[in-house]
Structure formats: structure tokens, C-alpha cells
Amino acid sequence: MYKFGVDVGGTTIKIGLFTAEGELLEKFEIPTDKSENGSHIIGHIAVKLNEIITGKGFLTEDCFGIGIGLPGPVDDTGRVLGCVNLGWGIVEIEREMSQQFHGRLVKAGNDANVAALGEAVAGAGYQRKNLVMVTLGTGVGGGIIVNGDILTGANGAAGEIGHITVNPEETQRCNCGKCGCLEQYASATGVVRIAKQLTEKYKQSELIEHIDELTAKDVFDAAKRQDALAREAVAVLGKYLGMALSSVVCVTNPEAIVFGGGVSRAGQILFDEVEKNFVKYVFSPSRHVEFLPAKLGNDAGIYGAAALIDRG
Amino acid sequence: MYKFGVDVGGTTIKIGLFTAEGELLEKFEIPTDKSENGSHIIGHIAVKLNEIITGKGFLTEDCFGIGIGLPGPVDDTGRVLGCVNLGWGIVEIEREMSQQFHGRLVKAGNDANVAALGEAVAGAGYQRKNLVMVTLGTGVGGGIIVNGDILTGANGAAGEIGHITVNPEETQRCNCGKCGCLEQYASATGVVRIAKQLTEKYKQSELIEHIDELTAKDVFDAAKRQDALAREAVAVLGKYLGMALSSVVCVTNPEAIVFGGGVSRAGQILFDEVEKNFVKYVFSPSRHVEFLPAKLGNDAGIYGAAALIDRG
């Protein structure tokens, strides 16, 4: 018996072939064809899955199921309620994928939630039943694991930590349309945005010279060298991320918070700044939370997708 | 077959006798004996339960179980991790209660969580699988229902909405020890505290005269009469409660929010103020949330406690 974990992104589709017990046997990747509103995507996945099992000499009857992570909210009935990055509207993904692949069991989930599940079953959160994952990338994503399962919510939109309002006084808009979201401060683009706002205050900063091409990594590297502008930008990120996580912890009381995404690679300086604020804002009965760096990197999605098959 | 729902409070213990299907047959109440660190409480409950079934001519074998709500965090192993109001430290409540009552099944939960479950199974949230309950009383309590079950968290402290930090600039301390908690603005004591802070600004307010005996109801009544001080106090409550609920909804994506507790009886003026802010701060994919007044009042606890028996 074997199963597949599929992670559908805007650029590539990652596919993992797993044993029924969740051991990764081999990884594959195909480009995401977004032409004609992404209408070829499901077919391309099916073709690739068939190619894989033919190559291995596996039988379709031995396929335990296909788990699939998608960049959009997925509801309890197995529908994805739109994926802007793929050009999709509402798609009955579980039914359609199953039709295209020999009627096998298909389970779908939101990609950030599925990555959290991956870290919970096979990564940083191994053997922890209650955890929060926050992904600090271009945006800020989140996924919440409760009793070993994804918290999906009424229409698949739970765990959207990046859109918690942390600064009601903010006047610039987030991509989501409102103002003051965590994502505006704690994402890669967010920390650069904050740094740029501080140039007037810190004219001596080493960042001024290449301010137009500034990256989040530049900001953290300069902060490690004690650049005052960079340190203040990191402090702003830490304040809002620490505060938002304290709210999430107040609501969900997890054992651990797993940090993923490019910004999390800044390491200790980030953790220190977040923890300092977290401890200040968190409700004390919930404060014993481990801060853990994600372990699976880009493979969290395929691991989590494969794990979806084991859950109801 | 029958079951019991027990709601242990600091003053009284409420007991509901239910059919196995959850229909309330009769209610009982005994005083809470807090002497000797509350060590008689479990025994008193057992005596009362025996008295009830003897009176009815019921058999102990026909008791489907006893659900019990307690004013403290309850973990997955059936222990309550301290109840300050009862004088309790850690108590293995499920085991001890079962020993005292014929070895029947006992399930325990935190009182705010159990009340949320009660509203979900038999009250305002009837037939809704995902909801948030917020109780605006002397403090601000909360309970979260995910897929029909209580979100308890790693050590029973999930759903503590009242201790979300909503104002990082606050200098006065909450009872919990930190500053800027929702409870400092949205509880009965909180709205009175805010009103008192506004007396310098609104010297003509009708509230000034009896400011020392001010109640939350006075503030809402004056706000309905357009008193400027009262309106501002209600606006502050609405801003912070709307913001905090938007964070909770961002994390849990419920179908409905149920409002309970004395402050919620202020009615439409409260809902309007909260909703205005909620809509401003909430992530749009999660915004379709019904605001519902609680239906069961003080009986939510016994209904929810009885419902605990049906869950794992």
C-alpha cells in the first residue's frame, strides 16, 4: 500500500510518494500550468501520478489515497472556495481528483494548514497534538493543529494568523483590503516596508545606501551588526508578532509554535525579539509554549497532504 | 437511562437531571461549601445525586454519566489544575467523583467552555458545529466549539478570550497580572472603570452624580439616552471587543458568536457597537459570522456538562 501527498503551488506542483505509514519514498515535481484558468492542473496531476505508479509497477488498487494541499480555503465538503493563484473559482477538488484517478480516496486542505499538519506528524511538532504553525514568507500564513487534526473552521478560513489586526492605527492597506494586519509587519515585505519608513529617523544606517533593493535578510543581517534602523524594524516585527501569537495562544492553548518561511531563517535574533514580547502579552496559564523552527522546509506540504488521508 | 449535568460555582452548585438524550427533567441547587479548601464539595455533590435518584426511584446502573463544569482549567486526563474560587489545587476530579458515585462515568470541563457547549447543543448555537461564546460578566470568559466539541488546548486553558491583549499601552493591571486585557474594557467592571476615567472630559454627564456606585447597566442605560460620557465608554468597549473577536474569528473561523453574561443584556446598543468594529477589523473570508444572544442563561452550564458525557 502507498499514498500520495500533493502540494499545489502557483509555480510548481510537488508530489510525494509515501508508504501507507507516511514514510516518504520519493519526490517529484511538475510545473503549474495556469493557462485557461488552471483547468489543466487536475488532469496534469493525474497523468503524473499514473506515470509514477506505472514506473514503479504499483497497482491503482493499492493506492491508499491522495492528499492535496491547495492555496485557498477548503471546506468540510471537499470543495476549495477559490484559488486566486491558480485562476480557480470554487472547485470540487476531492470529487474531481478522484474521478481523474481511478476513484481513489482524495482529501484536500488549505496549503498553510496542511504544512502545519506536516510539521505536526513528521517535523518540528512531532508527537505534539496541539500546535500553531506560523509561516513568515512573502506573506504571513498560519495553521492550527488541535488534537492532532487541522482546525479548519466553518468555511476553511481558520488559522489566518497573518490577518489578525495588530495595529488599529495603521493607515496603509494590507493586500487583504484592511489596515493593520500582522502580515504588514512580520512578512518579508512587511519588515522591508517598516525599514523604509525609518530612513528619516536613522540617516546613518548602513541600509540607506541600497534601500531600494532592500530584502528582509538585509534587515536581519544589519540588525545582527547592531544597525539602529534595522534593530528598530526587527523590534516592530517582534512586538506585533509576539502580540498576535499571544492572542492565538490565548485562544488555542498549544504546546508549541512552529516557525517556518524565509523570514524564520533569521534565527535567534527573531526568536528572542518575538519571545520578549510574547511573554509580556500572553495569559500566564498558557505561557508554557515551545518556540520551534520548522524542520521540513518545502516538504511540509507533501507530508501534511499525505497525512490528510489518515483523518476522517 | 438518565445523566447529570453539574455546574460548580463559587456560591452555588447547580445540578440538572437529564434524559440520556439531553432533555432536562429537573433542576436542583446546593450551596458551595468552601470550608477546608473546598474538600467537602465532591462529597456533597455525591450525596445530593444519591438523594435525587433515591427520590425518583432510579437505579445507579441506569446513570449514563455525570458531566461537571468547574471554575478552573481541566486537562485531557480529567484533572482540574486549580480552582481559586473553590480553594482547590490540582484535583483528579473525574476519578474522585466517579469513586464517590458508584464508579459511573464522569467527564469534567472548564465552566466557560462547558457553557459554550451548552449553548451549542441546546441554546443559541443549536446545530452549529463551530462557534465562539463570549461571556461578559464580572470578567470576560470564553469558550470555543470546533466541530461540535470543546477546544480545550494543551492544558485546558483555550478559549480565554478575556485575556487577549487589546491595548498594549494600558498601564493599569488586569486581575491576571498583565496589562491591556480585553476583560479590562469589556466586562461589567471594565466598562465602569472606563466610565470613571472619562469624568474629567464629560463634566455634564448624568453619571457624575452617582459615579461611586456606578454599574455597567447604568452606563448602558445612559448611553441609550445619548449621554456623551456613557456613549464613549460603550464605544471603547465596542472597539476592543470588536477587535478581539475579529482576532478570535481569524483564528477559529466560526459560524456564530454567542454573547452571554450580564453585560450582554444591554442588547442592540452593544451588538451594534461591537459589530461596527468587528467588521472593520475582521479578515473578509471569515466575516460572515452571526451574532447571537445566549439563550440558556444560567442553565448553559448544566446543559453543557450533561453534553460532556456524549463526547469521547
Largest sheet of chain A: 5 strands, mixed
Distance linking N and C termini of chain A:
18 Å
Q: Can you write the helix and strand succession of chain A as a string?
A: EEEHHEEEHEHEEEHHHHEHEH
Radius of gyration of chain A: 20 Å
Estimated helix fraction of chain A: 25-40%
Q: Name the pair of protein chains with the most residues at their interface, and give those residue counts.
A: A-B, 47 and 47 residues
Strand order of the largest sheet of chain A: 3-2-1-4-7
Query: From the structure provided, what is the oligomeric state, counting identical versus distinct chains?
Result: homodimer
Which structural class do the helices and strands of chain A define?
alpha/beta
Low-confidence stretches of chain A: none
Shape category of chain A: globular
Give the overall pLDDT of chain A as a whole number.
95
- What amount of the residues of chain A lies in strands? 15-25%
**SS elements, strand count of chain A:** 12
Counting DSSP H or I runs of 4 or more residues, the number of helices of chain A is 10
